[in-house]
TrEMBL record:
Residues annotated to bind Zn(2+): 101, 375, 379, 416-417, 495
Entry superkingdom: Eukaryota
Keywords from the named record: Cell membrane, Glycoprotein, GPI-anchor, Hydrolase, Lipoprotein, Magnesium, Membrane, Metal-binding, Phosphoprotein, Signal, Zinc
Protein's name in the database: alkaline phosphatase
């Protein structure tokens, strides 16, 4: 009996113990849940970023001043902003491509700092106009035949959607460079600008290079060699009978698609003028053409309501309401670097001015254009010129963003390639980016031989050292013509081969993410505008170009004149 009683007691105790254990466990779980909930509740209450402060009660005093730190608050705010970013999947009515020729990441960073320092700030925290775009990608720039790239072949990629060989434009890699006979209708490729023209849109090219330079030319021409800018060039440079190939200037004037390119603002008059014509700005210079054709006059005669200007006064007098086609050629060859522009005799508009006027003309039924100038300056080994051009590009993008309708315009900012341009060392915050390095203690930074050095430098180029590296204590390194030191001494600084950035905003821009091939830029613009057949399975034509109206009323038929593609190339080689 006792045994039975004891065992029953034990049994009850065991049950009770187990129950108690469960109760305890449950209590712990409830307590934990409450703790989590309270933490969670705290997290959801405060929208400002000070949400973490009350977790102290649960987890201890781990966050102290972190949540009031302005850098921390910036991060919290950006999360909030980014949570609100939604992809714009509408079909774009218009597109603008800004191309910073040679504007690699080091150029963007140094340009951002210079722009900030020109405004009296320390510079590093400055934000360029395209750096607030919500979408971006890295683009790989190699070619079919080169690990690196030249401007013609990479412009062919981002404007035509294919990779090709170095030195050729608007053609695929089956063409043999400099052999006219290898160029046929089968290996020509169609650009985004041509697709836009054929869809009835307006197009424009704005550049500080010659209009016939490789980068803008890749939007309208096909050439077995990028240097075939005039008939004289073909005669001098083709390796076979070049007489059956059209030079690039002639292709610009005889461009056969749509109603022709509406706006060309560029340099390079000499390629369109013949030998007997004297340049209007430089009495000692003439045109280059051997065929005796005055292509500028031919262009004006061909287009109704058209106008030619060659200086600032002519540019300022353009009446955007009256003119439908305009060609502005502001230099015999390339336009001036931004930092030298004020010295021009006849006057030249800035990239921002050209951009604004081009958009206003194109907005009457706009479709596209190009712009820029960074690359030549880097080729000279001069960071000052290149970075001032980056600052000018920043203003042009900002101006465009002010005047376009961002809900219907895809704006893309990218580079064709980088340069062997570096930002090195440990300069203190706010150290002049074009200056000699000073470190935290405000002393000059020196090398192992007690010689000073600049923050900016080149891997190769005209600043190359022939013998030992000179000290820079008494050198004005921010002078316009100063050449930063370079490791390898070359006559001409080279392109860089690392990836370039692609920054996008507006309809279709959400497709820019990840690491992509450079030709993808064409495909995003094509999809966003829904132009080529290859895309039309997955996009709807814009209502102003024959698409079905959306019931949401997202598109307005009253605005057909607003469509355009704006290709802006900050071009340079
Ligand atoms: C949130 O920030 C605003 C602006 O700084 C401030 O006025 C407001 O009091 C803050 N709210 C909380 C809950 O801290
Ligand atoms: C250019 O000048 C030469 C020599 O005066 C002349 O023979 C030729 O016809 C001129 N060409 C044109 C297109 O005016
Ligand atoms: C600008 O071009 C116009 C038209 O050719 C010309 O009349 C004017 O003299 C030029 N101005 C300058 C400063 O060269
Ligand atoms: C480095 O050069 C500076 C300027 O010529 C000189 O004042 C300084 O003493 C040198 N320092 C050393 C460690 O040689
Ligand atoms: C390099 O330096 C040597 C010796 O001082 C000189 O003879 C030569 O001309 C220099 N070369 C260049 C390209 O500057």
């Amino acid at each position: 009996m006792t045994a039975v009683y004891l065992s029953a007691k034990l049994y009850i105790f065991a049950i009770f113990s187990a129950f108690a254990e469960q109760v305890t466990e449950l209590a712990m779980k409830i307590s934990l849940a409450v703790r989590f909930c309270s933490a969670f509740l705290v997290l959801t209450i405060d929208e400002n970023g000070s949400r973490f402060s009350t977790i102290q009660g649960v987890n201890g005093d781990i966050f102290r001043n972190q949540d009031t730190n302005s850098w921390y608050k910036d991060g919290v705010k950006l999360i909030q902003d980014n949570l609100g970013v939604k992809p714009n999947t509408n079909t774009a009515k218009s597109a603008i491509l800004f191309l910073g020729d040679g504007m690699g990441f080091s150029t963007i960073t140094a340009g951002r700092i210079l722009d900030g320092q020109m405004k009296g700030e320390t510079g590093e925290e400055n934000v360029l106009s395209w750096e607030v775009f919500p979408w971006s990608a890295l683009a790989k720039t190699y070619l079919v035949d080169l690990q690196g790239t030249d401007s013609a072949s990479c412009a062919t990629a981002f404007l035509n959607g294919i990779k090709t060989n170095s030195g050729m434009l608007g053609v695929d890699s089956t063409v043999r460079r400099k052999y006219c006979a290898s160029l046929t209708d089968d290996n020509k490729v169609v650009s985004i600008l041509t697709l836009a023209e054929r869809a009835g849109m307006s197009t424009g090219i704005v550049t500080t290079t010659r209009a016939t330079h490789a980068t803008p030319a890749s939007s309208y021409a096909h050439a077995a060699d990028r240097n075939w800018e005039s008939d004289a060039d073909i005669k001098a440079k083709a390796l076979d009978d070049g007489s059956k190939c059209k030079d690039i200037a002639l292709q610009l004037i005889e461009y056969p698609h749509g109603n022709g390119i509406e706006v060309v603002f560029a340099g390079g008059r000499r390629e369109l003028m013949h030998k007997n014509q004297t340049d209007p700005e430089y009495p000692d210079k003439t045109g280059e053409r051997l065929d005796g054709r005055d292509l500028i006059q031919e262009w004006v005669d061909k287009h109704p309501n058209s106008q030619y200007v060659w200086n600032q006064t002519g540019f300022d007098q353009i009446d955007v309401k009256k003119v439908d086609h305009v060609i502005g050629l502001f230099e015999s060859s390339n336009m001036k670097y931004e930092i030298e522009r004020a010295d021009d005799k006849a006057g030249e508009p800035s990239i921002a001015e050209m951009t604004e006027k081009a958009i206003k003309i194109l907005q009457k039924n706009p479709k596209g254009y190009f712009l820029g100038r960074i690359d030549h300056a880097h080729h000279d080994g001069s960071a000052t010129k290149a970075l001032h051009d980056t600052v000018a590009m920043n203003k042009a993008v900002a101006k465009a963003l002010e005047i376009v309708n961002k809900d219907e315009t895809l704006v893309t900012v990218t580079a064709d390639h980088s340069h062997v341009f570096t930002i090195g060392g440990y300069p203190k915050r706010g150290n002049p980016v074009l200056g000699i390095q000073k470190n935290l203690g405000d002393e000059l930074a020196v090398d192992l031989q007690n010689r000073t050095y600049t923050t900016l430098g080149y891997g190769d180029g005209p600043g190359g050292l022939n013998g030992s590296r000179p000290d820079l204590r008494n050198v004005k390194t921010d002078a316009k013509d100063y050449l930063q030191q370079a490791t390898v001494h070359l006559g001409w600084e080279s392109h860089g081969s690392e990836d370039v950035g692609v920054f996008g905003d507006g309809p279709g821009a959400y497709l820019f993410h990840g690491v992509v091939e450079q030709q993808y830029v064409f495909h995003v613009m094509d999809h966003a505008l829904c132009l080529s057949k290859s895309k039309q399975k997955s996009c709807d034509k814009h209502v102003t170009r024959g698409g079905k109206p959306k019931s949401s009323g997202a598109y307005s038929l009253s605005l057909p004149s607003m469509m355009y593609v704006l290709l802006m190339a900050a071009l340079l080689i």
